[in-house]
Design goal:
It is built from 15 helices and 14 strands. It has 538 residues and is of the alpha+beta class. Keywords: ATP-binding, Cell membrane, Kinase, Membrane, Nucleotide-binding, Phosphoprotein, Transferase, Transmembrane, Transmembrane helix, Two-component regulatory system.
Length: 538
């Protein structure tokens, strides 16, 4: 095929793929028809030769079986008007043979289509027939090339007295062969026409599928596609109608946590087998529909979009939103701190006004007591946290969250059993988990009559345990697992980011450290989230 296409280009034939394919298929069909004709004619010639020799032998055997022929040979001389000549000519005319020659034991003709050759020796050796053997052959004689049959001629007592040689003109065999060629060519032409029609229909189908492009254009498109897919900074994954992977570019493999060096080996594998069950698989396979769908894969927050293709498959694109999500959460934290500082500024201004009033009224002892009380409250709060939570990052987080909770009118307290040493292997991960759970608890508790949030952090061996309880409305019935799904939230979307990722990230971070997170309820009807992180302490 490649040789034919290369030859077509060298000969200046059409560049369009469909034209080259059509010409190639027509050439192949014609070649097959010629080859089939040749393969059929080759054994046909041999078969016709064999049939002619067998017919000549059968005529010779029939002639030799006539007892009058043997008696005539013994009783008459080799002359043109002998009974042997008359019998032989009668047989020749009846059978259509070229000649029927009877010879005696000396090889002298006793009959011949040309009477002037009677009485003369035969031109071919009759030895095998005179020895009692039947002979079939294609040979050259005085009458030209012929298919011959020779048999011994027996007398009434069974003694060999001569031989009978019958010839079938080779021209008649060739005429039969030539006569068979038109019919054979008709069949070959019909097969060629059917092949040409099939080639045309196939080429039309290929024309629609290739958009009438030349092979060079298709090759260029494939090269450009490969370069584009592996150079863009957006993940692309293509699926067929059965959910099997067609291609995965390098960025998609990186975002999905797949080995980039084996991306080509993923082709043909089912998406469920490669990624496993989860929201990412549901989004990419189309079981979850929508635009700019958020999903968490490993430690990454991804934005996925899926576009169906005409053949029932789909192409999905993936964008990394992890850094943007981190920035959004930092913005949330910053806004929370700003609100806490604003509240502290108002509170500080009120206290300064109170202190100024006490001093102007000359109540110096009362002013001193007021300053001591205010400073003691802040000091005792910070000391209470640092005494139970020795890790500085977690302690700072809880002190900051306490200020935010106070501004929102929520009581944030540490449980009596809280006790966490300063020996965390990954304090940043626990800070993220705790911050997300406390933020959710503050949102849930803010609307209750007596809002409160309780945090319990403690160590059991090398495991770290975290419990966050609130006075909110609790977890909806039957939603204990659904709340950890990306995009699930009971709150209104924020102006700068989508909701429903906090709990999903909490679970991912916990599972990445070999832990687990569980949601339940409190005795007062609120919610309780429990996180266990094994091997979290040194």
């Amino acid at each position: 095929m490649r040789f034919l296409l290369t030859s077509a280009r060298r000969l200046g034939l059409p560049r369009r793929a469909v034209s080259q394919i059509l010409l190639t298929q027509l050439a192949i069909a014609a070649g097959v028809a010629v080859l089939a004709t040749g393969l059929f004619l080759a054994p046909l010639s041999s078969q016709l030769d064999d049939q002619a020799m067998r017919r000549a032998l059968a005529i010779a055997q029939s002639a030799a079986a006539d007892p009058a022929l043997a008696s005539g040979l013994l009783d008459s001389a080799p002359v043109p008007d002998s009974p042997v000549q008359a019998a032989a000519e009668r047989i020749r005319r009846a059978t259509g043979a070229e000649y029927v020659v009877v010879v005696d034991l000396n090889g002298i003709r006793r009959s011949h289509p040309s009477p002037d050759r009677i009485g003369k020796p035969v031109s071919t050796d009759p030895g095998d027939a005179l020895a009692g053997r039947d002979v079939m052959e294609i040979d050259e004689g005085t009458l030209g090339r012929s298919a011959r049959g020779k048999v011994p001629l027996l007398a009434a007592d069974g003694e060999i007295v001569g031989a009978v040689s019958v010839g079938i003109a080779y021209d008649s065999v060739r005429d039969r062969l030539v006569g068979a060629i038109p019919g054979l060519l008709a069949y070959a032409g019909g097969a060629l026409a059917a092949g040409a029609l099939a080639a045309y229909l196939l080429s039309r189908r290929i024309q629609r599928q290739t958009r009438d492009l030349a092979f060079s254009d298709i090759s260029a498109l494939l090269t450009e596609r490969e370069a584009m897919l592996h150079s863009i900074r957006e993940g692309v994954i293509a699926l067929d109608r059965d959910g099997r992977i067609r291609l995965v570019n390098d960025e998609a493999a990186r975002l999905l946590g797949l080995p980039t060096h084996s991306a080509d080996a993923l082709a043909g594998r089912a998406l469920d087998d490669v990624l496993g069950a989860g929201r990412t698989t549901d989004v990419l396979s189309g079981r979850v529909t929508g635009r700019d769908l958020l999903t968490v894969q490993g430690a990454r927050v991804l934005v996925a979009n899926r576009m169906p293709t005409e053949d029932g498959g789909a192409v999905a694109t993936l964008r990394d939103r992890t850094e943007l999500e981190h920035l959004a959460r930092e913005l949330d934290s910053t806004r929370g701190l700003i609100e806490a500082l604003r509240a502290q500024d108002h509170e500080h201004a009120n206290r300064l006004h109170t202190l100024l009033g006490l001093l102007e009224l000359g109540l110096h002892e009362e002013a001193a007591d007021f300053v001591t009380e205010v400073a003691g409250v802040h000091r005792s709060t910070a000391e209470q946290v640092t005494e139970k939570v020795r890790d500085p990052l977690l302690a700072a987080l809880l002190v900051g969250k306490g200020a935010v909770a106070a501004e929102r009118g929520v009581s944030l307290r540490l449980a009596d059993r809280t006790s966490l040493p300063d020996s965390l292997i990954d304090p940043g991960g626990l800070v993220t988990i705790t911050g997300n759970l406390v933020d959710n608890a503050l949102d849930a508790a803010a609307a209750s009559a007596a809002p409160w949030v309780e945090v319990e952090l403690r160590a059991e061996g090398r495991s770290a345990l975290l419990h966050v309880r609130d006075s909110g409305p609790g977890i909806p019935a039957g939603r204990g697992e659904e709340i950890f799904t990306e995009g699930w939230s009971t709150k209104q979307p924020s102006a700068h980011r989508e909701r429903g990722l906090g709990l999903a990230l909490v679970r991912r971070l916990a599972e990445r450290q070999g832990g687990a997170v569980r949601a339940g309820g409190t005795a007062d009807g609120g919610a309780e989230f429990s996180v266990v992180l094994p091997e979290a302490l040194r």
